[in-house]
Amino acid sequence: MAVISVAMTAERIVVVINYKMLETAEVVESSNKKLVYFIKLHATWPVLCHYAEELNMRAPLQAHPNPSMNWSEMILQILRLPNIMYEEVPNKPLDYYTCPFRKSKIDRFLGSENHDTYFGNVQRSRILYEILSTAIFGKKKKGEVGIDRLVEEGVFSSAFPLHDGPYEMKRKKGCIESPLNPRQVLYEYWARWGKWYKYQPLDHIRDYFGEKIAIYFAWLGFYTGWLLPAAIVGLLVFLYGVFTMHSNQLAIEVCDSRGQFKMCPLCDETIGCNYWDLSDVCGYARVAYLFDHPGTVFYAVFVSFWAVTFLEYWKRKSASLAHHWDCMGFQEEEERPRPEFAAKAPFLERNPVTGVREPSFPSSLRHKRVAAGIGIIFLMMSLVIIFIVAVIIYRVLVSIPLFQHSTFRAQAQAIANVTGAVVNLCLIMAMSRVYEKLAYRLTTWEMHRTQTEFDDNLTFKVFIFQFVNFYSSIFYIAFFKGRFVGYPGNYTLILRLRNEDVRCLIELAQQLAVIMIGKQIINNAQEILVPKLKAWWHKKRVKLCKKHKTRWEEDYQLIDNEGLFQEYLEMVLQFGFITIFVAAFPLAPLFALLNNWVEIRLDAQKFVCETRRIVAERAENIGIWFKILDMLAHLAVISNGFLIAFTSEFLPKLLYQYEYDWDLVGYVNFTLAYAPPGKMIEECRYRGLRDRAGNHTPFFWRLLAVRLAFVIVFENEITYSALIQAFKCLNNRL
């Protein structure tokens, strides 16, 4: 029996039951002497049949074989290698040929003679939630509709479907007692940490949580599997840099130049900054080579191809799952209006597809609300830019006293960059929380008809802001820092302070590592600690006195499930980190892979063990998240092309080798300009391709032409190859 339990703490409760639902109530006393009322709702057979047709649920006609095999399993079979990732999972759900449910044709559906088992727990909970979500309890114009509004206002404590028994298993002499309930199967064969290397039982996940949850875990597993080759190649590229670091001609010239190059102060002489010797940054020059050598150019091209190919193959996997789970065309054909929309919509209009009169909202008014929301998004993004300027000023102010002391001069830039990145990360995480709540309220106010439209608009708002929030400081370092510094006697000032100097890929790698890895650590810590703290506080607050608790009492002590939005957002932002800026940090896919192995088990444990069961929803694919991933993949091609051309030393060294010396002898001296006469107290050098008057040299303009040509060739070549790959995938699909 599938039950939605509605819990309330009060002395008196009045429940109106419509649609012939069965209701039972139970009163339990908690440790603080408050009474907790559990109202258990169960829909009768006529109600289930009525709403199954109303919701266009799929009904089974005939069972058929369910062959499920993935690409790694096929490869290992061809190579005749043992597959340690495969494991036989008991109680595998059957696969059926289905069609939309119709009461008039009930006798034609498989298993319809048994009223108790025909509708599964997932279907029953969906029907009950639909009834509860559309029930009017007050004035419709004020939005006094649905169980969610009552829970929000504190009338009820919560409303949730029940788990199918406990997840803990009784064992005798190390053996599991059978049979296992569906929740125990998921825990034993999926959610445990010991199963980190096993295939995910996607059919079991779908049967217990619904298609929307299952498609997320299918995508996360597919993405994690594809990270493995990217991580291996990235590690090899990094190791190549380690093994060839000591033969780097640039670092050798910097380290052997003691006394040869007196460098101009990195801040104004008037505030006490001193001249310094280029050999002071010998260690920094050696480490910089790890992130800026020929291998990183190859890796940028590799990851650009990898990202496009990954998305093409996910399209195939997604279509296969949608067909396998009978969700093809679900969004266009079957999705009904959101319960909140139906309750608050002022008009009824005929649906051109179904012919049924459905709630509607004027498009002109919605467009005005969307425009107002866009204005608020731009306001919040402006706030992010202000914080970035504040971090830039912080780095300048921190670096000044460090440059004044010879002890810290060599590490001054690194200290300023890393501490600035940590400050930036704290601001980013704080702004994220504030904006997500604001975006949810804005999207609710815009009155979108279906849940898919609501989710897509919320996703778009949050991602646009988070894109600016997380990536803007990295884009600044990659493409703007050091571009507008000027030269001695003609420096660019911000609030009477000299703009930041020095630009190379190691600074970008530092910023990327701090933000990406720091975000992963914070998110994983939150996913481990926050649910446990919430559960501890919730159990303490609602502690029930009974020793032997019922299923609804056990589930009541679990915390609410917050859905998939944060999970998708975390992974999509990670995808941006490992593709858009991979030329600067080849180890990014490796850290992402390690994180995702942990993430899958954390999410699995959260859904199975730590949170209340979520109401199952259908989904055909990952929705607007795929369009965002596709946009990031194309942006990665552009970004990596510009990184190699304008931030890396690859092209300047290549042009110097072609025109002057293939072994790069004298390259350091060639790239250091002399300060214009009379502008500094002492003669000094600074980084730049300028003559003594401060004008750009002919080599600078030739280099600029080479850089622009490289960007054009890089982007067109990868785009052309991606189109060829897409056509191949399309032909294979046809």
TrEMBL record:
Transmembrane domains' residue ranges? 213-240, 296-314, 370-394, 414-435, 458-479, 571-594, 622-646
This protein's major location comes to membrane
Domain Anoctamin transmembrane per the UniProt entry, residue ranges: 205-716
Q: A Gene Ontology MF term for this entry?
A: chloride channel activity
Among InterPro entries, the record links this protein to:
Anoct_dimer, Anoctamin, Anoctamin_TM
Per UniProt, the keywords (alphabetical) are: Cell membrane, Glycoprotein, Membrane, Transmembrane, Transmembrane helix
Q: Which family would the database say this protein is a member of?
A: Belongs to the anoctamin family.
Protein name in UniProt = Anoctamin
Source organism (scientific name): Timema shepardi
